[in-house]
Amino acid sequence: MRLKRLELQGFKSFASRTIFSFEDGITAIVGPNGSGKSNIADAVRWVMGEQSYSSMRAKTTEDMIFAGTRTRAKLGMAEVILVFDNTTGWLPLEYSEVSVGRRAYRSGENEYLLNGARVRYRDLLDLFGGAGLARSNYTVISQGMVDAALSLRPEARRALFEEAA
Amino acid sequence: MRLKRLELQGFKSFASRTIFSFEDGITAIVGPNGSGKSNIADAVRWVMGEQSYSSMRAKTTEDMIFAGTRTRAKLGMAEVILVFDNTTGWLPLEYSEVSVGRRAYRSGENEYLLNGARVRYRDLLDLFGGAGLARSNYTVISQGMVDAALSLRPEARRALFEEAA
Amino acid sequence: VEHEMLATFKQVRQWFSTYFNMLFSGGSASLYLTDPEHPSDSGVDISARPPGKRTTSLSMLSGGERSLTAVALIFSLLQAHPVPFCFLDEVDAALDEANIFRFRDLLRSHASDTQFIIITHNRRTIEIAQTIYGIAMGEQGISQVVSLKVDG
Amino acid sequence: VEHEMLATFKQVRQWFSTYFNMLFSGGSASLYLTDPEHPSDSGVDISARPPGKRTTSLSMLSGGERSLTAVALIFSLLQAHPVPFCFLDEVDAALDEANIFRFRDLLRSHASDTQFIIITHNRRTIEIAQTIYGIAMGEQGISQVVSLKVDG
Ligand SMILES: Nc1ncnc2c1ncn2[C@@H]1O[C@H](COP(=O)(O)OP(=O)(O)OP(=O)(O)O)[C@@H](O)[C@H]1O
Ligand SMILES: Nc1ncnc2c1ncn2[C@@H]1O[C@H](COP(=O)(O)OP(=O)(O)OP(=O)(O)O)[C@@H](O)[C@H]1O
Ligand SMILES: [Mg+2]
Ligand SMILES: [Mg+2]
């Protein structure tokens, strides 16, 4: 068991705290057009350290924060937390449960969290890198991007193999 | 009744002469992945004078001609004919039935036909232009391009409205 | 020409907002000239607000919302300037079931002025066609028509 | 590093050709190093030949053939270097019914090593999930979980 939970609050259209628990095997996420499904995939990319806003259909940090609707005011912060079961020691840390988090504020500031404590962005990357999960291109395949690897130039495709090494 | 028939021969995967007759209302084209459906839409773009090969998933004239398979030799020519019912005089011509054709050879040469007689490319454009069908962007919406207009820059969108004028 | 362009623009804008509202069962959308003083040189901006949401930039719309907004634009161009036939290649691919029904209704309402030839994998869209062509790759890797169904 | 990269490349190439053949029920596909002398600087070329056809350049593949070829590549990377979880957002959108079944089989065969979270509108894909989350936009334009189904 690797991924236990994903928690979103104030991230894009998820204004209220929303928790997804994951079991082994296959989990399907379904719903009407515009209901927020791809925002969940963006949240996973974001919390794993993604810095390219255009790959999350956004331009700035503020676009990640709930912008408000006709009946609900905008929020000042977005937070996403990924909780892993680490009993097999897959992540190079002592803990049996590891939570990785990211927060962003309207000021543009981003914070990174490891088991609730603030860490540097660098630390998050090292953690994922050490576990072979470096901002991997095949951990999250965004909508419409399934065949992106086919459109890359040959030199650009090399990055896919380096990550897998 | 406007469009009566579409005839393909040697065009992309349509090696043998294939005829589609169209009635009023809605015609659906269905079939497995890779069976040749989008090649039909490319054929319509092509016979209407399309010169941008990339908009037909090709690079050169030769890509439009049947390239051969494991059991059938390649051909030397591609031909597409569109037959219109012109009883209402919608096309500025005397005939009650008008056929527009395009042929291409491995030499790279392209021929344009009007009721079987060779005409210049210019003549074809004038005919469609006069009938308000100038290489119109909304007569053929290619696969994956439905939201292309949303991705255009504002100046580029103007062309859509000029055609509709 | 400038006068004609402006007249067409206004018509398309009118229909775009009507069709958007119909397809989304609410919300609002509009077209703007970036340079209203010089219509024939001006660009065209699009704004779209699905029901219940704030006006989003087009880039924040979901995959299905983008397709539906684009369909509203295509049909408003068809309405302002009908063409005899229109080929649509899997324009319904990103739509959920409810939006496919709305798309179907719009298609049907235009089918008396324009012949539509629509390539689709969606059962719901196929249901409304009067003629259905089945295409397959034969053993020789050649496309051929394998079946044809014509209503009535 | 160079040695590792080459070993991984060979493994992915092996699986890519196996999975392509499985997904297309025939045909063949391969990966090539553009500069085999210097693997860690080299680019990677892809060739794909659906059954019965000549080797086409990738640009001549159909929409569904491209998706299926990409799926073969993604799963060969997962096979060579498994990751604990994988999010797939509507990767099955262009696939016809027969190819969805093949895609499902491949997904299931990897589900014991990797957790898959898949966003889809396809009934056939939803059928094989152990857990299903239903998302909807509430009246306030806010996304929320509306239903959850967990098998056994
Ligand atoms: N910062 C934000 N604040 C509020 N809402 C947002 C924000 N960013 C995006 N949204 C909303 O999220 C919606 C898009 O959600 P998403 O792309 O996840 O839909 P989806 O469920 O994937 O739909 P589809 O099935 O069409 O792909 C948009 O309508 C947009 O208004
Ligand atoms: N010049 C050519 N000669 C022979 N075959 C060709 C030629 N050009 C394209 N093809 C073949 O046509 C096939 C693609 O057809 P097309 O894109 O029309 O499929 P489709 O029915 O639209 O599939 P999908 O449902 O996946 O979109 C490719 O497999 C390609 O091999
Ligand atoms: Mg989506
Ligand atoms: Mg196609």
Percent helix range of chain A = 10-25%
Percent of residues in beta strands of chain A: 25-35%
Shape of chain C: globular
What separation lies between the terminal Cα atoms of chain A? Answer: 23 Å
Which oligomeric state applies?
heterotetramer
Mean pLDDT of chain A: 92
**What string gives the helices and strands of chain C in order?**
HEEHEHEHEE
Distance between the first and last residues' Cα of chain C: 45 Å
Helicity level of chain C, as a percent range?
A: 25-40%
Strand segment count of chain C: 6
The Rg value of chain A, from CA coordinates, equals: 16 Å
Number of helices of chain A: 4
Count of individual beta strands of chain A: 8
Largest inter-chain contact set: A-D, 64 and 69 residues
Class of secondary structure makeup of chain C: alpha+beta
What structural category arises from helix and sheet content of chain A? alpha+beta
Shape of chain A: globular
Give me a quick take on this structure.
The complex is a heterotetramer, with 2 copies of chain A (about 160 residues) and 2 copies of chain C (about 150 residues). Helices cover about 20% and strands about 25% of the residues of chain A.
